[in-house]
Specification:
The complex is a heterodimer of chains A (374) and B (264). With 374 residues, chain A is an alpha/beta fold. Chain A has helices at residues 3-10, 12-23, 37-42, 70-80, 97-109, 129-148, 154-177, 187-196, 202-215, 239-245, 261-264, 274-284, 297-308, 323-326, 329-338, 354-369, and strands at residues 27-31, 46-49, 89-93, 114-118, 227-233, 250-256, 313-319, 343-348. In chain A, strand 3, helix 5 (97-109) and strand 4 (114-118) form a beta-alpha-beta unit. The mean pLDDT of chain A is 96. The chains are: A alpha/beta (374), B alpha/beta (264).
């Protein structure tokens, strides 16, 4: 069953098209992981995160600057190449400036029936963000209702919340298995699981997760775990990189990135006010560096994960030109190292130099093993 | 050989005053503590009228114009960027930010002496770099950081909730500033500063509009040099008064058909 996630990952567009045919439903492209998907699930809309393809491209230069991060350019390229031509709508919950411009470019050049910008607070630590974001989630809900031509009831919202929460709980259970001495799944496999939950129908995804969770206790990988590693980054679904790291003596046992744990780590906690529960969930989730003000609250979370999963080292996968992450990483590296987690920083692009990366990762693993070279 | 001109030209009379305001601005910031005053740093797009409620001896140094000043000195600018590189920051981050940090890490102030440590940093989160800039500076200098999130969408979609989100953060910031400086906030001073800010920005808009005339009374380089005063401290009476003087002079040039303000 676990291979299903890789299959979905590779054939994501075919899946979305088939889903539309099968259900007659609408598909919305989501920009960034801060879009309150509970509202979309409540309206029976399939959220499909806009991701890149990690292929070289030459179509975005006329539209967004070359110094925008590779992920933004790669994501827009997918739209310009027509790969998301099945979308009925696009939604951005504000994250970084680069992605906002990418979203605006998308809206201009790839018009769809529904497009919506949610001004998601950037200072999630201020108490004023709570009533404000609740009101923005409410506005978004109203816009979706108008588009769909029917109200989203409390019952719908409860269902939407539970669909999302169930998927989050199951992914957390899968991640729990990675705490074992010999994890029954690789970091590459875990990455496919986490990232596919961002564009596969959540209920279908959860059903497969449940089946996989039954298989995992019996699953033994024909390899040694080697050095236990943590991947720290942003939108880093760099499958080839994970594969390489796990071929040279390491296993990624935990991640702290939006293509992974940051996306699903916490749940919406229903408290009577459903919209507040949804809004607060996004304010309380492990923050992207773009939201982490005034203090670096994220650092302790990263360290806690490293300790909980007994990571022996961390690899910071820094997306080139990503100001929010670049604005955190030197201090985060220092913080992890001061707390006993050796850390390697690598600069990522859409396509990556796996040969040089391999040498650096091998050297990093050698230093962790404390190997004598001579 | 003299360059032939199509229109009569003349030097801008208030140019020396603009230079004096800029020089005095950095001097005041550096010397503020000697006189018991307060220093704050942040971005040129911070709500700079807000700290003015703390007193008449509150001095600001906005980061972008300061870094632009350093950029004029290639050697020092390179030293600043090298110092930032050495601390592991990415080379593709905003160069103004990297230069500012470098000057801070090197503890060298471009206008002489040690880098003047701010009492607090105050910033509006207009872009990802600005937010990280002052987060790092405040951590390095171990002083409070007040950042105001302005993620409330485009102006034309402003609602009461969106406005209140910003206003409530500013209220918290004022309380934080009072705590950080031990001073009582004076609303009257804030009102005066906001009035000056409105004067500065509307006068500058008026000056830009006057520049539609043919011949244009100001050239682009001169406009950049004069516009920077609004990015230093548009809420100060000195800047607002200067823009009034400049507006009158530019108006007069338009009336007389005199073109390009050639800087001395």
């Amino acid at each position: 069953m676990i291979e299903k996630f890789k299959d979905w990952y590779i054939n994501r567009h075919d899946y979305a098209k088939q889903w539309k045919e099968r259900t007659g439903g609408k598909v919305f492209g989501t920009f960034c992981t801060y879009v309150p998907e509970e509202v979309l699930a409540a309206a029976n809309i399939l959220p499909a995160r806009i991701l890149g393809s990690h292929e070289p491209q030459d179509v975005t230069e006329p539209h967004i600057f070359g110094m925008f991060c590779p992920f933004c350019r790669d994501a827009l390229a997918q739209g310009l190449k027509g790969r998301f031509n099945y979308l009925d709508g696009v939604v951005l919950a504000h994250s970084c400036i680069h992605f906002r411009q990418t979203f605006n470019s998308w809206r201009i050049h790839l018009p769809v029936e529904f497009s919506y910008y949610i001004p998601m607070p950037n200072t999630v630590q201020t108490p004023h963000a709570r009533p404000y974001h609740r009101s923005e989630v409410e506005k978004f809900k109203t816009a979706v209702e108008e588009y769909m031509g029917r109200p989203i009831t409390d019952k719908d919202l409860d269902r939407g919340i539970e669909i999302l929460n169930r998927n989050r709980r199951l992914l957390r259970k899968v991640y729990e298995c990675r705490k074992l001495d010999n994890p029954p799944l690789t970091g590459e496999e875990a990455m496919y699981m986490a990232v596919t939950s961002q564009f596969i129908d959540k209920e279908e995804h959860s059903n497969v997760l449940e089946a996989v969770l039954k298989e995992l206790p019996q699953r033994k990988l024909p390899r040694d775990a080697g050095i236990r590693l943590m991947a720290v980054g942003s939108e880093n679904d760099d499958a080839e990189f994970f594969k390489m790291v796990e071929a040279v003596g390491g296993t990624v046992v935990i991640d702290e990135q939006c293509a992974g744990s940051r996306y699903f780590w916490n749940e919406s906690a229903p408290n009577g006010d459903r919209l507040a529960a949804i809004a607060n969930r996004y304010l309380d989730r492990p923050p992207c560096p773009v939201k982490d003000y005034p203090t670096h609250s994220r650092f302790q979370h990263v360290l806690n994960l490293a300790k909980d999963y007994r990571a022996q080292g961390a690899i910071i996968m820094q997306e080139k030109f990503c100001d929010p992450h670049e604005g955190d990483n030197p201090r985060l590296k220092k913080f992890l190292e001061e707390n006993g987690i050796p850390t390697l920083s690598l600069e990522f692009d859409s396509t990556n130099p796996l040969g040089p990366f391999r040498i650096r990762v091998e050297a990093f693993l050698e230093t962790i093993r404390g190997e004598e070279l001579f | 050989m003299a360059t032939p001109t199509k229109y009569p030209t003349e030097a801008l009379k208030c140019w020396p005053k603009a230079k004096e305001i800029r020089q005095q601005y950095y001097k005041d910031y550096a010397e503020a503590h000697d006189r018991g005053g307060i220093r704050w740093s942040g971005g040129a797009w911070a709500f700079d009228a807000v700290p003015m409620g703390l007193g008449d001896d509150v001095h600001v140094m906005t980061g972008e114009p300061y870094a632009a000043s350093i950029a004029w000195d290639r050697k020092f600018a390179q030293e600043c960027q090298d110092a930032t590189d050495a601390r592991g920051w990415a080379r593709d981050l905003c160069s103004y930010m990297r230069i500012y940090w470098g000057s801070m890490y090197l503890n060298r102030f471009f206008f002489g002496g040690e880098f003047p440590k701010a009492d607090f940093y105050f910033q509006s989160q207009i872009c990802c770099s600005h937010s990280k800039w002052d987060q790092e500076a405040a951590l390095y200098e171990n002083v409070p950081y007040f950042c105001v999130d302005v993620c409330v969408g485009p102006y034309e979609t402003l609602t009461e909730e969106r406005l209140n989100y910003v206003v409530n953060q500013l209220r918290d910031t004022i309380e934080g500033m009072e705590k950080a400086t031990g001073r009582k906030y004076d609303d009257e001073k804030l009102i005066a500063a906001v009035n000056n800010e409105c004067r500065s920005t509307s006068l500058w808009a008026e000056i830009c509009t006057l520049n539609k005339a043919i011949p244009a009374p100001l050239d682009e380089k001169t406009m950049f040099s004069l516009y920077v005063l609004a990015t230093l401290q548009r809420s100060s009476k000195k800047v607002a008064d200067f823009y009034e003087e400049l507006r009158d002079e530019v108006k007069d040039r338009v009336a007389r058909g005199s073109s390009l303000a050639l800087s001395p």
